Amino acid sequence: MSPFLIHMTGKKEILSILQGKSINDLDDVEESDWGFLESCIPENKSDYKAKVVCFTESPTFALDFFRRRKKTRWVKDQRFGLGFSKASLVRAGVRPVIYLDQPMIQKINKIFNDLERQEQEKNIDQASEELLDLVRKFYPLVFPILESNRFQGFMWEREWRMVSETGFSFKHSDLRIICCPEEEQGAIEDILQVNKDHIQFVRSWQEYNDVTDFLNRQSKIWEEKNSSIKFKKTIGEPASVQLQKLLDEYQSTLKTLKERQDFIASLQEEHEMLKEQIFKINQGILDCQRQIEEENLRKRDQSRIALDTLQGVQDSLDWDIPF
């Protein structure tokens, strides 16, 4: 899985985020060196009232799936994203989402609302207070697993959240990745100034060679490790520790490759569906063009008939004029 957490956003939003806002407790720091991600209630859900900042740990090659998955994201042109080190965001309090089925979420919501009502009515015992405190901590992290949906949330979103009533302030130097079109990179670099030098700019909607490049590099490392292990065995030294580490690396890489394989398979399914829809739309276009041409021909025929009729009437009138 990716070592980064990425916040996806739109063209206008990314510039506003990078320009940040006033940070009252950091008066000695230039505001231009800071950005700000404002918290919000995800997806405008009426039954969810926690304000959070959302991130995804999906690898860069899969990020554009989010834009294609929902019309609102497509309309907002969410080809833009800000990527941070996962380790640094964990230290800042960002946590992975807890994916649960809908009945479980409804049960949690009911318990949460009941306990809050008891607290407001000052009719809550100590055990219930402790339970309410616990629920308040994980309630903002709960999200439907979408088990009946073709594109389950837990498979693609891999969402992480920071719970905050306001948002998340960050230094530009904290950024590690920025997703944006090449033509928009200049405006972003103007805001980042010197901090742009340590940031990797990527095009998340294009085919990347992230995995291929990694495997090419890693294959050489694995060959060296295998050679070292074989040498140790030939001279009678134990190699179980090195073998276990190599096994862990193989298993971790295999998991990543299977995830990419699943992603590519889903794109293939979408590709076939799009081919079918493109064919139908092309047929519709041809049918519309045919009907328009028929209408135009009919109008021309009607106009010609009308002109012939008028000409005939005119000729008859001219013939009847006495000399």
- Euclidean distance between termini CA atoms: 101 Å
Poorly predicted regions are 22-30
Order of helices and strands: EHEEHHEHEEHHEHEEEHEHH
Give the CA-based shape. Answer: extended
- Roughly how many Å is the radius of gyration? 31 Å
For the residues shown, what is the average pLDDT?
79
- DSSP strand content: 5-15%
Helix content: 40-55%
Discrete helix count: 10
Spatial order of the strands in the main sheet? 1-4-10-11
The number of E-state strands comes to 11
The main β sheet shows up as: 4 strands, mixed
Determine the structural class based on helices, strands and strand pairing.
alpha+beta
Compute the number of structural domains: 3
Description of the structure:
The strands form 4 sheets. Strands 1-4-10-11 form a 4-stranded mixed sheet. A 3-stranded antiparallel sheet has the order 3-8-5. A two-stranded antiparallel sheet has the order 2-9. α5 packs across α6 (about 125-140). It has 10 helices and 11 strands. The chain has 3 domains: about 5-95 and about 155-210, no CATH class; about 100-140; about 210-285. By secondary structure, it is of the alpha+beta class.
Task: Summarize it.
The chain has 323 residues and is an alpha+beta fold.
Could you give the topology of this structure?
Blueprint lengths: L3 E6 L1 H9 L14 E5 L13 E5 L7 H6 L1 H5 L4 E6 H6 L3 E2 L1 E3 L1 H19 L5 H13 L3 E3 L8 H4 L2 E5 L3 E5 L3 E5 L5 H8 L7 E3 L7 H25 L5 H81 L3
Parallel strand pairs: 6-7, 10-11
Antiparallel strand pairs: 1-4, 2-9, 3-8, 4-10, 5-8
Helix pairs in contact: 1-8, 5-6, 9-10
